[in-house]
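Provenance and format

Records in this collection were gathered into a single text stream. Each protein contributes a sequence line and a token line. The two records reproduced below are adjacent in the stream.
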Amino acid sequence: MFGCLAHTQRGSRRAGNVLVATAVFSSVVLGALGQGAFQNLNFESAIVPIVPANQPTTVPFSDAFPAWTGYLGTNQASLAGYNGISVGAYEISLVDTHTSFYGNRVISGTFTAVLQAGNANPPLQYGPAAIGQTGIVPATALSLRFFASGSAGDLVVSLNGQSVPFIPLSSGPNYVEYGADVSGFAGLPAELRFTEQPISNPFATLFLDNIQFSTSVIPEPCVLTLSALGTMLLAWRFLRRTSP
């Protein structure tokens, strides 16, 4: 009888261990499955009210920036500006093509994000503004590309807290395209974060749009320099031939 009882207790412990292991395994699997692809990288998924073109307002952050989390300093943002930007405080805003003040600053599509460093609380203590999102970097990704205008020199792009250096690649009508090498993060879950810091200006402002992962490599800076020099040389030779 005692032998049967001991066997039953050992069996119960073994079953309990299996249940614990199964629960841990399920938690890990579900956590991995919960990490999906990055979303709303062009900010076109915003859910915003209809307001007059010259009337800025605030909206819940999750409506303005679905899939993103906002940070003002170290605090999580609960609200976002809409169709207006701050005049001094740090803020995360969304502007669209209908605003009479900033419609010409929209870079692509209907909406563009605005990150503003500025006054924190208490006043005269300046802090950064950031947006972040966690997802799986595509397995084929070699670079991260995005369009921006404003104080790009005050911007930090990071993956899992690791700064990712970026360089200008080309320019558009009201933006510069930047690119960064992210091949080391390909296929991995990571938090992608854009942080505008009060470095060159306490109120440094960045307009951000059209973020995408690309299978194209980022050219070396020296290649870009040589390309620019080559273009200048060709232009100089053309001017010499056509000048009187």
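Adjacent record:
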Amino acid sequence: MGRLLTLAFLAVLPMLAWGEGYVCVPDMGVGLRYSLGTWQEGRLTPDASMKFVVRRPKEIDGTGVSEAEVIAGALGIPHTKWIVEMPSTRSTVAACPEDFDSGGRLICHRAEGEFRFNKNSLRFLHVYLGAYWDSTSDKESDQPITLAIGKCSPM
């Protein structure tokens, strides 16, 4: 009985360390990309690097400064309640100024797009609008414009 209890505790320990949050993985996506001198449409092939993590902001390494304050300065979104990040690039994809609404919906923003998540359906939508409208040049290096959908699971 003691071993079973110990194994159960060890299985739950990673979830306690993470706290409340969600891991979201795209199922499919579409987009536009500048290639060979023209804008072309195409499918987005999701892979492990496209994973998103939705979580509460935390204090940064004992500095007394929170991620929410840094995001407010960088993205202009004050009072950030949740953040969306891509662990593969260690970048913040969006910031959520409000908490989940009564329908379980969370809407997060960034200048180049939006991330929407519903904790009841565990579905998400990520839109990246890229630099097309904000650039005077078309370059192969421009980020693609994408729309991705997928499912999330609690951490």
